[in-house]
Design goal:
Elements (H helix, E strand, L loop, with lengths): L1 H15 L3 H37 L4 E5 L6 E2 H9 L3 E14 L5 E7 L4 H4 L9 H9 L2 E4 L1 H7 L6 E6 L2 E10 L9 E5 H8 L4 E2 L1 E6 L5 H11 L4 E4 L1 H44 L1 H9 L4 H38 L19 H28 L2 H7 L3 H4 L7 H14 L9 H29 L6 H12 L2 H38 L4 E4 L7 H7 L6 E12 L8 E6 L25 E5 H7 L6 E6 L2 E11 L8 E5 H6 L8 E6 L4 H14 L3 E4 H15 L1 H28 L1 H9 L4 H43 L9 H27 L3 H8 L1
Helix pairs in contact: 1-11, 2-9, 2-11, 2-12, 2-24, 9-12, 9-18, 9-24, 10-13, 11-12, 15-16, 16-17, 16-18, 16-26, 17-26, 18-23, 18-24, 18-26, 24-27, 25-28, 26-27
Length: about 850
């Protein structure tokens, strides 16, 4: 009963304190950011998986080529069909085509109408079964409603499907009712797709449904042992893992930032709870004298924190759902990361994660109150009854440099550790230690810097302010700590983003050597277009062709991009931005050049010989070097066209880099535009590509900047609340100064100067910690999580401008505290003290 009474008293105090509202809002904001990011990630992944299943179905196993230019032989498909453990095999061919002159790439899926219903029922055409089967077997093509609306087509219309030089004049037979909204799909009989676009002796995939009672895992393992090396077998779980891995590092980074925002909010709760303990020290002491045990006094303070944290967390859940909906509609389901393009799913909240974030908000509030509750327990009851809160008891921070030094050494050591499961967990721990290092260094720095300043010939109120900051009262340390955390987070992210953007800008200079570029929208370019560019009246002096494919090196990772380029194998430096020395390949062996991501993910290095699944077989290649790539996070491999064709590959370019003839630069783009429109291609100059790339880059960090702003807002709230509380706790000191001749203007100036100095300490330490954390983000987090490397570049103009704005905001907060000081009834305070 006594415990319940203590909790009810705590709730009553929580309602009465106006400053508790700021604590509640801080918890709400931290929970809202984390919950919003979770909702968006969870919904986007579920939406992406549903999109895959609507096209792929839910097979027990999928047999596919490792090289996307390869195929699954028909003999293997027939062998699988005869397996008694197999219920049905659904062969599938999926290619990218364009419709007439439209530049929009469309997925064309060829399926077997007799086996598809058992595996991919969502891709069955609309209409009565017999009529639909007859129409599709006669060469009819079915389209998704989204594609019909986008291309203004209707059943019965004629359309031409193009892929490179191949054309298929088809008839639109109907629509696909089972397709998802937004899907741009065409479905046709697999025989017709194979006849027009290939592959001539195989299929793209074999999707398998096993008979009831068959152990799917054992069956897949047995089949994997006898499959040719150029084929792989994967399960639905592998596809789910691959989808999750696609954006996992990006999601983890955003969640860590949200947790940091919640941590910054916990500092505000800490400041408010410490203020409340100090304000009610005499009341707590009286309750202790009257028999309330120290344990129940602690429970009362923790109960007050829970009375703040619970409604704050509930408000955060509601706000998080609203933020998730808004972010999804504006930035997409990937928060601008570019992983699920065009995805804007409907947010669906689930009970268990909501309860988890509710508990996280309450835990943050309780953590903020734990230390103040412990300090209250250490107070001497007699002294607390007489003079209130004894700050000497609370000033347990030793003003020595050994603790921040040890933390800095540990942070450096953690930054050297490798990733765990492709996630930089040690790097995140290093960042946390750097933040704590900055907080523990604040008392030492303030004492060393401002103690010497207090000896200068200054005005009395200025000297008083310097002495107070030099003594670093606990509440002043709390105010500086909140600002250290928030400003360090902001500076670190600004530094990392600036370094990344500068690196991307320089990288674009290296990878965009040509003035103009033409893209076939993921479909091969027709020979007619290439022939037109070679005509004597063409304004182009030369052009280079590029072909894109993909290799599956790990079934649970996204495919590695295979890029076939017209590149001199003996001088690749002219076209690729290498990160180190280039190894000279053996004259008779194929050579490839791998990106940094490929090197990191698959533990490869320059000069190594590896076997790659190329062109239907495993081929040993020589790694000639490692090049920098800021586009393909999951790896890319470049091979020269000469080596690719020597190995038996068919080169089919999809991209062109074009150099106009001298004197034709101004007219080259105009000459090329109608030719590109005729074949459904896109044309852009290097400047447009640069601008688009940088705008996409900026959009991908939009949420990061929002989190930075939230952290700074929380830090400034904490500063304002703590300075105001500090004035109340020092009422007797200020009253004594008034009795000694300080007028209200001098008291106000002293309080403002003290607040500005505390903010300055927080900003200086936050700047140093922010640069250190920015280095960890740049040299550890980015390479380990995203496999991108760059040089650290501190944006000093932005950093100093941010510091100046923060200092100005701190000055405004100090003026608020000074106004509270001038309103104190100084005479009454002195009378009460006697």
């Amino acid at each position: 009963m006594n415990t319940l009474a203590a909790w009810l008293i705590a709730a009553q105090f929580a309602r009465r304190r106006t400053t508790s509202l700021l604590s509640l809002l801080a918890i709400a904001l931290g929970v809202a950011l984390g919950y919003a990011i979770h909702l968006i990630n969870d919904t986007a992944l579920a939406d992406f998986r549903q999109a895959m299943r609507s096209v792929q179905g839910e097979p027990d196993a999928i047999v596919a080529p490792r090289d996307t230019t390869g195929s699954v032989g028909l003999a293997l498909v027939e062998e699988l069909t005869r397996d008694p453990a197999v219920l049905v095999v659904a062969p599938v061919i999926e290619v990218r085509v364009r419709v007439d002159q439209h530049a929009l790439p469309v997925r064309l899926i060829g399926l077997d109408v007799f086996s598809a219903p058992a595996v991919m029922p969502a891709l069955l055409p609309e209409g009565r079964e017999a009529q639909a089967s007859r129409a599709i077997l006669d060469g009819g093509v079915y389209a998704s409603p989204a594609l019909l609306a986008k291309l203004a087509l209707a059943p019965g219309d004629h359309l031409s499907l193009w892929r490179g030089n191949s054309r298929w004049p088809a008839v639109l037979a109907g629509q696909l009712p089972g397709s998802r909204p937004g899907d741009l799909l065409l479905v046709a009989d697999i025989a017709w797709v194979q006849a027009h676009f290939g592959p001539p002796a195989g299929v793209g995939e074999a999707r398998i449904r096993l008979a009831p009672g068959v152990d799917a895992t054992r069956w897949r393992q047995a089949l994997a042992e006898r499959l040719p090396s150029d084929l792989l077998i994967r399960s639905d779980d592998d596809d789910s893992a691959r989808v999750s891995n696609l954006s996992r590092a990006y999601r983890v980074n955003l969640n860590v930032l949200a947790l940091v925002a919640l941590l910054t909010g916990a500092f505000l709760v800490f400041a408010n709870q410490l203020t409340a303990v100090a304000q009610r020290a005499s009341q707590f002491a009286l309750l202790g004298v009257l028999g309330l045990s120290p344990r129940r006094l602690m429970l009362q303070i923790l109960g007050e924190a829970l009375a703040i944290g619970l409604p704050g967390a509930l408000l955060g859940l509601a706000l998080g759902h609203a933020l998730a909906t808004a972010f999804t509609q504006t930035l997409g389901g990937d928060l601008g990361g570019g992983y699920f393009s065009g995805s804007a799913p409907t947010i669906i909240a689930r009970p268990l994660p909501a309860l988890g974030f509710l508990a996280l908000g309450c835990a943050a509030s309780l953590a903020g109150a734990a230390y103040p509750a412990w300090l209250n327990r250490q107070q001497d009851l007699a002294q607390a009854l007489k003079s209130g809160f004894a700050e000497e008891t609370a000033s347990s921070s030793a003003r020595h440099l050994w603790l921040p030094t040890v933390l800095g050494v540990l942070a450096y050591g953690l930054a050297q550790l490798p990733p765990v499961g492709d996630l930089p967990l040690a790097g995140y721990a290093s960042i946390a230690l750097l933040l704590v290092m900055g907080i523990t260094a604040a008392p030492w720095l303030t004492q060393r810097v401002f103690a010497a300043g207090a000896e200068l010939p200054l005005a009395a109120h200025q000297r008083i302010a310097l002495q107070n900051v030099a003594q670093a009262p606990l509440l002043a340390q709390v105010a500086a700590s909140g600002l250290i955390v928030s400003f360090a987070l902001t500076i670190s992210m600004v530094t990392m983003v600036s370094s990344f953007r500068l690196a991307v800008d320089r990288w674009l200079d290296e990878v965009l050597p040509a003035p103009l570029y033409l893209r076939g929208k993921a479909t091969p370019l027709p020979d007619e277009l290439l022939a037109a560019l070679r005509q004597p009246d063409s304004p182009f002096a030369r052009f280079e062709q590029t072909m894109h494919a993909a290799l599956a090196l790990d079934v649970q990772r996204p495919n590695v991009a295979l890029i076939v380029r017209e590149i001199d194998r003996d001088q690749p430096e002219a076209r690729l931005p290498f990160t180190g020395a280039v190894s000279q390949p053996p004259p008779t062996q194929p050579v490839v050049w791998i990106s940094e991501a490929t090197q990191e993910l698959y533990r490869l290095h320059s000069g190594q010989r590896v076997r790659l699944p190329l062109l239907g077989r495993e081929i040993e290649v020589f790694i000639g070097g490692v090049w920098r790539d800021y586009v393909r996070q999951f790896g890319a491999i470049v091979i020269s066209r000469s080596d690719y064709e020597r190995l038996g590959g068919r080169f089919a370019a999809s991209d062109l880099a074009l150099w106009p003839q001298a004197g034709h630069s101004a007219t080259a783009a105009a000459w090329l535009a109608p030719l590109a429109a005729r074949f459904g291609c896109e044309v852009a100059d290097a400047g447009e590509i640069r601008q688009l790339s940088l705008s996409i880059f900026d959009q991908s960090f939009a949420v990061t900047h929002a989190l930075e702003a939230a952290a700074m807002l929380i830090g400034l709230f904490g500063l304002a609340v703590t300075l105001a509380a500090n004035v109340w706790l020092r009422a007797r000191e200020l009253a004594t100064l008034g009795a000694l001749g300080f007028d209200r203007h001098m008291l106000s100036q002293a309080v403002i100067l003290e607040g500005v100095l505390i903010a300055l300490v927080g900003l200086l330490i936050g700047l140093a910690c922010g640069i250190a954390i920015g280095a960890v983000l740049t040299y550890v987090i980015n390479p380990q999580a995203f496999h991108w490397r760059m040089t650290l570049s501190v944006p000093w103009p932005s950093a100093l401008a941010g510091a100046a704005l923060t200092l100005a905001a701190a000055t405004v907060a100090s003026r608020y505290a000074a106004r509270q000081a001038t309103r104190l009834p100084l005479a009454q305070i002195l009378a009460d003290a006697q």
